[in-house]
Specification:
- This protein has 504 residues and is an alpha/beta fold.
- The protein folds into 3 domains: 116 residues, PAS domain (Beta-Lactamase), CATH 3.30.450.20; 179 residues, P-loop containing nucleotide triphosphate hydrolases (Rossmann fold, 3-Layer(aba) Sandwich); 75 residues, Helicase, Ruva Protein, domain 3, CATH 1.10.8.
- It contains 23 helices and 15 strands.
- The strands form 4 sheets. Strands 2-1-6-5-4-3 form a 6-stranded antiparallel beta sheet.
- Strand 1 and strand 2 form a beta hairpin.
- Helix 1 packs antiparallel against helix 2, helix 17 crosses helix 19 and helix 22 crosses helix 23.
- The N and C termini lie far apart (76 Å).
- InterPro entries: AAA+_ATPase, AAA_lid_NorR, Homeodomain-like_sf, HTH_Fis, P-loop_NTPase, PAS, PAS-like_dom_sf, PAS_fold.
- It comes from Brotonthovivens ammoniilytica.
- Keywords: ATP-binding, DNA-binding, Nucleotide-binding, Transcription, Transcription regulation.
- This is Sigma 54-interacting transcriptional regulator.
- Pfam families: AAA_lid_14, HTH_8, PAS, Sigma54_activat.
């Protein structure tokens, strides 16, 4: 079609030349062009039939805005024919007392970008308003060649309203399915679980990942902070860029600045003769993860704040500012508010980092997640060492009874140890687990001289403790004991039972 339009344009030029001076050679050229036009029309007949059969109006101009083609639907919708607009420039046709007001084509010609606009035509004497989507067409060199505008009247859009509403509902359902599928398929081991807190974190990750907002991730060591950072990076628009990680606590204070900011040659004794780019530069166009941000020295906190605010740094020993394009993720197991109070962390830096706060709860507060995590690591290490392994319900209870100071990292190590200790028999005895976790597998004995009420209360307390240890939450424990969750909650307070989700 493009070739057809180009040849037709040449024909018009020759025709104008012939009107000024008769020339037999020009006449022969014109005849050859007519043959070419007929050839292209036959060759592109399917394309032309498709365009001519569309319900959408099609309006095509060249790169200067000269009208090349309108299809029959455009004429039906607006009353404007090819003869009305062909060989006219769009600027001649647009404005007061002309064929058009508004429209997308002038904007596309100006910007080279697609545009969506309302346009009103006046050919019929009665204003006809419709939407127009203008699309630029470029050649292989990236030069604008044509603008194709697709249009429909507002009246026709109203008739499609019910279809559109149905489409929106279907799209919403598809979006939900996609999110659920992605969350199941991409979930890292530390994100496996059933707790509401974890589900909320997962939802938040997908909401904030696409932005460039700074994220502050807090939580105990081993709880999964770095995994959260990895998930944010993987789901961000910067996932194709560098992901640079640095642990602020693992590098001596006097070296941390040069690692972050880099240095010019001769900046200090022992510096490389060529200088060295810092991690800020290496992370540009990507993401920089600052682990254990709470341990960063105060003097560096000032420079970090300036770098985040200005997206600009200067190397040590340098004078030329270097522009950055970085998304910052900060991680800490420290209480930064407490550090602010005792003067070891800057309040202004805290607020700059805490744009999107994410707190990862410790494993002891996620009892319902312990069993699925155990099963995940059992599958992982059973496959790795080719040793089938399983835990009993009682042993899962021991796992829930333990406080997990090392969180998921400790759980992973424990499961690997148990798989190796099973020696291929597929299980271990209870005392292996209780000894490893330093917990008791024995129930307390009720003294023989206890009165009835004391004995009943002690038995009730032990029963509750055992059920809570082997249940993921109060509701599950209630089902096992055939009482409601509120009764269990009241009994927990009554007997002062140590339960992580207890509300005082």
């Amino acid at each position: 079609m493009n070739q057809y339009l180009a040849i037709r344009e040449i024909r018009e030029i020759l025709l104008k030349a012939m009107e000024k001076a008769a020339d037999t050679e020009l006449s022969q050229y014109l005849h050859q062009i007519d043959e070419k036009l007929e050839y292209f029309l036959k060759k592109d007949i399917d394309f032309k039939e498709i365009v001519d059969g569309l319900d959408d109006g099609i309006f095509i101009t060249d790169h200067q805005g000269n009208v090349l083609y309108v299809n029959p639907a455009y004429t039906r919708n607006t009353g404007i024919t090819q003869e009305d607009v062909l060989n006219h420039n769009i600027t001649e046709l647009t404005g007061e007392d002309k064929l058009y007001t508004g429209g997308a084509v002038p904007d596309v010609l100006k910007t080279g970008k697609p545009a969506f606009r309302l346009s009103t035509t006046y050919k019929t004497g009665k204003p006809q308003t419709g939407y127009v989507i203008g699309t630029p067409i470029f050649n292989s060199s990236g030069e604008l060649r044509q603008v194709v505008a697709c249009s429909r009247t507002i009246v026709s859009l109203k008739s499609l309203k019910s279809d559109f509403n149905t489409f929106v509902q279907e799209l919403s359902q598809l979006d939900k399915k996609t999110i659920n599928t992605n969350s199941n398929e991409n979930l890292s081991s530390e994100m496996i679980g059933k707790t509401t807190t974890l589900a909320n974190i997962w939802t938040l990750i997908h909401h904030v990942a696409a932005s460039d907002a700074t994220v502050l991730i807090t939580g105990e060591s081993g709880a999964g902070k770095e995994v959260i950072a990895d998930e944010i990076y993987k789901n961000s628009s910067r996932s194709g860029g560098p992901f640079v990680k640095i642990n602020c606590a693992s590098i001596p204070a006097h070296l941390l600045e040069s690692e972050l900011f880099g240095y010019e040659k001769g900046a200090f004794s022992g510096a490389s003769a060529k200088g060295k780019p810092g991690l800020f530069e290496l992370a540009s166009t990507g993401t920089l993860m600052l682990d254990e941000i709470g341990d960063m020295p105060m003097d560096l906190q000032v420079k970090l704040l300036r770098a985040i605010q200005s997206q600009e740094i200067t190397r040590i020993g340098g004078t030329k500012p270097i522009k950055l394009d970085i998304r910052f993720l900060a991680l800490t197991n420290s209480d930064l508010k407490e550090k602010i109070e005792n003067g070891t962390f800057r309040q202004d830096l805290y607020y700059r980092l805490n744009v999107i706060p994410i707190h990862v709860p410790p494993l002891r507060d996620r009892l319902a997640d312990i069993e699925p995590l155990c099963r995940h690591f059992i599958d992982l290490f059973s496959s790795k060492y080719n040793r089938p392994f399983s835990l009993t319900e009682q042993q899962f209870g021991y796992m829930r009874q333990y406080k997990w100071p090392g969180n998921i990292r400790e759980l992973e190590n424990i499961i690997e140890y148990l798989v190796l200790c099973s020696s291929g028999v597929g299980h271990v005895e209870d005392d292996v687990i209780t000894s490893l976790l330093n917990i008791s597998s024995q129930k307390k004995t009720i003294p023989a001289d206890s009165d009835f009420n004391t004995a009943v209360a002690e038995f009730e307390k032990q029963l509750l403790e055992h059920t809570l240890q082997t249940s993921g939450n109060l509701r599950e424990a209630g089902r096992k004991l055939n009482i409601n969750a509120s009764t269990i909650s009241r009994k927990i307070k009554q007997y002062n039972i140590d339960y992580p989700n207890r509300k005082d």
